[in-house]
Amino acid sequence: MERPDEPRSTDERARRGYDGMASEHSLTRNSHNSPSPEAGPPSKNENAMIQDDNLSTDPARQPVDNGNVTTGVAGLDDILGGGLVEGGLYLIEGMAGAGKTILSSQIGFHRVNQGDMVLYITLIAESHTKLLSHLKGLSFYNADAISDRMLFVSGYHELMRDGLSGFLALIASTIKTNRPRFMVIDGFRSAREFSSTELELSQFIHELSAFVSAARCTTLILAPLSGNEPHPEHTLVDGLIELNRYNTGMRRAREIEVHKLRARDHLLGKHFFKITEEGLVTFPRIESSAANEQDMPDFKSRLGFAFPDFDQMLGGGVVRGSTTTLIGPSGVGKTLLSLKFLQAGVDRGERCVYFGFYESPERLIAKAQSIGIDLAPALQDGRLTVHWHPAVELAIDELAVELIGAVRRAKASRLVVDGVDGFRQSANRTERFGLFLNALSHRLREAGVTTVLTEELPLYGDSGPPITLRASAMTENIVLMRYVEANSALYRMVSIVKQREGSHDSTIRRLTIDSRGLHISEGFIGPTGLLSGHPSLPPALSVSDPGARA
Asked: Can you tell me the mean pLDDT for 317-335?
């Protein structure tokens, strides 16, 4: 057994207190029977080994509340349905460099911080000093913990000399002597290679599972990704977690998936994670868990845009807690109209959040001032919070976590998300984008915020339906803003395409923007096809002629 800062003989420490348990756990025992996937009750020797442990008064030696073992990895406990089960045996698979060692070490240091004794057993030739040198740059690394409550043991020589039976005996004697509450077995590929038959490996996993369960020692086994081939350990362990990485265009993405987890209602499917200076940070897919039930919105309570003509088109404003999408090409006025929504809020003393991808805070304030909106005081006193995300490689769920967190921290009543396309460009798997938007809108309603989104349409030519129309359940109100070419000039137009609650003005109106602000004039008379951007005047019909409607 080896401590990095206190070297001593592995054989001497590993066999201290060994009292014949190797023979009790020999793989030749019951080798003529196939192991049951369900672990039976612990043997007499196993119960004897942990008897005095059960009587311990050390809080670190007591069972975890409700048998729950937290991981300390951001987002992972949510994916696991609360954490791991005390005494469970879990297999973590992944290709080289996927993050298995970092993940297990991060959980191990967290368990030390919770008062547990942690045992880390390696089956690889790499020294523990080299292993730890790779972890020193991570924030969770704690050198004091290694010399106090984290023990490193090499089982490589026992495995080579005595096979799986000798390795199991090493585990048994080390657990009996040191009584860890959390254990990692790194390099399980060696155990696979040293097993002569699948039956022998199954027997080893079966007895290891029964042993760690009796000892209440939650255990992680780290192994390389085994592909689609079934392995006996997959059916015998309590949980199977896969770490994966793949290319998406020019980007490299990482995903975690829990294939199996006994006694836990975990989140299904793949979830994004990244490796940072803090270790692994996971981001559960926002659509993988249900939002809390919400009270029905107060349809009588409406929020305006500080823009009387536009508020009149909306029938007095938008319902509190609703989502409104402004759709249109670049330069048509979407951002300016959304800033009017924020202006109305800060003027009333409300907390507001702007979350955008294209405008830096300085440019945003300058743009607002160009039409007479002064948001600088609100930004300084905290009524307005601006989050700007330039084109960087952030995952879509990472952005969602930051957005929802910003709303909750500010206790915001109004939110502008300027550029839904920024989320779409961050999506590694575009097929889930509609579900993502629906789930995000539910989370924002749950946070009690009234949201305005902007979505860009192509300036020239026909385009497919906007994202928010394809996922129309996410938004109660849709405002269409377009350019219209007529008489050798371009005109801005605005119309209310959808409003779920209350009546609205369905007229297509002209929008003008100048240094005094935004202005809405009377609707267009005569032309058809305004929504498509290609107006025309039918020779036999004029909407200005009441008799033509008969």
From this structure: 94
Res. 60: pLDDT tops 50: no
Q: Quick check: 234 and 261 in contact, CB under 8 A?
A: no
Q: Are residues 123 and 220 in the same domain?
A: yes
Q: Which of 448, 445, 531, 447 is nearest to 482 (CA)?
A: 531
Longest dimension (CA), the chain: 106
Tell whether 504 is covered by a domain. yes
Residue with tokens 């026909």: 462
Strand pairing report for 489-499 and 384-388: unpaired
Give the pLDDT confidence of 466-475 residue by residue, as tens digits: 665 555 667 8
Helix (H) or strand (E) holding 245, with range, is: strand 239-248
Same domain, 326 and 434: yes
Q: Token pair 């292993």 is at which residue?
A: 131
Q: Does the pLDDT value for residue 240 go beyond 90? A: yes
Contact 107, 180 (CB under 8 A): no
Which of 222, 254, 284 is the endpoint of a domain?
A: 284
- Indicate the burial class of 146 (C-beta count within 10 angstroms; 0-12, 13-18, 19 or more): buried
pLDDT tens digits, one per residue of 388-411: 988 667 889 999 999 999 999 999
One domain, residues 225 and 353: no
β-strands 84-85, 68-69: how paired? antiparallel
By the 10 Å C-beta count (0-12 exposed, 13-18 middle, 19+ buried), 425 is classed as: middle
Are both 156 and 262 inside the same structural domain?
yes
> Residue 505, SS3?
coil
Contact of 361 with 379, CB cutoff 8 Å: yes
Q: Is residue 55 part of a domain?
A: no
Answer whether 84's CB lies under 8 Å from 145's CB. no
Q: Give the strand pairing for 517-523 and 509-514.
A: antiparallel
**99 and 191 together in one domain:** yes
Q: Which amino acid is at 30?
A: N
426 or 275, greater pLDDT? 275
Neighbours of 486 (CB within 10 A): 14
Instruction: Let me know if residue 312 belongs to a domain.
Output: yes
What is the extent of the structural domain holding 469?
302-549
Answer for the pair 327, 479: CB distance below 8 angstroms, yes or no: yes
- Sequence-separated (6 or more) residues with CB below 8 Å from residue 179: 53, 61, 117, 215
Residue 308 has pLDDT above 80, yes or no: yes
Supply the DSSP string of 428-482, one letter for each residue: SSGGGHHHHHHHHHHHHHHTT-EEEEEEE--SSS-----HHHHTGGG-SEEEEEE
Q: Do the beta carbons of residue 111 and residue 291 sit within 8 Å?
A: no
Residues 176 and 238 in one domain: yes
Residue 512 and residue 455 share a domain: yes
Question: What is the distance between the alpha carbons of residues 532 and 550, in angstroms, rounded to a whole number?
Answer: 26
Q: CATH number of the domain at 406, please.
A: 3.40.50.300
The string of DSSP letters for 4-20 reads: TTB---HHHHHTTT--S
Determine, yes or no, domain membership for 74: yes
Residues 537 and 426 placed together within one structural domain of the fold = yes
Of 284, 310, 325, the residue at which a domain comes to its end is 284
